[in-house]
UniProtKB/TrEMBL annotation:
This is MarR family transcriptional regulator. The keyword Transcription applies. InterPro entries: HTH_MarR-typ, WH-like_DNA-bd_sf, WH_DNA-bd_sf. SUPFAM superfamilies: Winged helix' DNA-binding domain. Keywords: DNA-binding, Transcription, Transcription regulation. The keyword DNA-binding applies. GO terms for molecular function: DNA binding; DNA-binding transcription factor activity. The lineage of its organism: Bacteria, Pseudomonadati, Pseudomonadota, Alphaproteobacteria, Hyphomicrobiales. It comes from the Bacteria.
Length: 149
């Protein structure tokens, strides 16, 4: 790597994210899951029965991306859509029994990847890194919000 690459927060964050994504994909593939599906499942395991619009906002993805991810998840029998009792035009997304049964294994795989990635850090270093990453995300999110107005 050139000096710029090794000292560029953006480059390193992107490279790290791709490395995490590859490791997660490899770990959850035997469960029949893809990383995009896993992110949706994390939200639904936390709160089942939300709308597609809710998922788009929570996961900060494009509407079209979410629509295709949900279509694949429905095809794979991970979710089912039901009429929203509060809005006749909307449908809510619900976990199937199959998706519920995958939670422990899938979350365990993700935790294993995180442990592997952070194995060389002390508890204090790990906390500082995670806090720093969260701060960067917040700063860039505030910049994005400000530029949209």
């Amino acid at each position: 790597m050139t000096a710029f690459k090794t000292r560029s927060a953006g480059y390193l964050a992107n490279h790290m994210a791709r490395s995490f994504a590859r490791a997660l994909a490899d770990a959850i593939r035997p469960l029949g899951l893809a990383p995009a599906q896993f992110m949706v499942l994390l939200e639904l395991w936390r709160e089942d029965g939300v709308t597609q619009k809710d998922l788009v906002q929570r996961l900060d993805v494009e509407q079209a991306t979410m629509a295709s991810t949900l279509a694949r998840m429905e095809r794979d029998r991970l979710i089912e859509r039901r009429p929203d009792p509060l809005d006749a035009r909307a449908r809510t997304i619900h976990l199937t029994a199959h998706a519920r049964a995958l939670e422990v294994a899938a979350v365990g795989k993700a935790r294993q990847i995180n442990r592997q990635a952070l194995a060389g850090f002390s508890d204090d270093e790990r906390e500082r890194m995670l806090d720093g990453m969260a701060s960067i995300i917040a700063a860039l999110s505030a910049t994005e919000s400000g530029s949209e107005n």
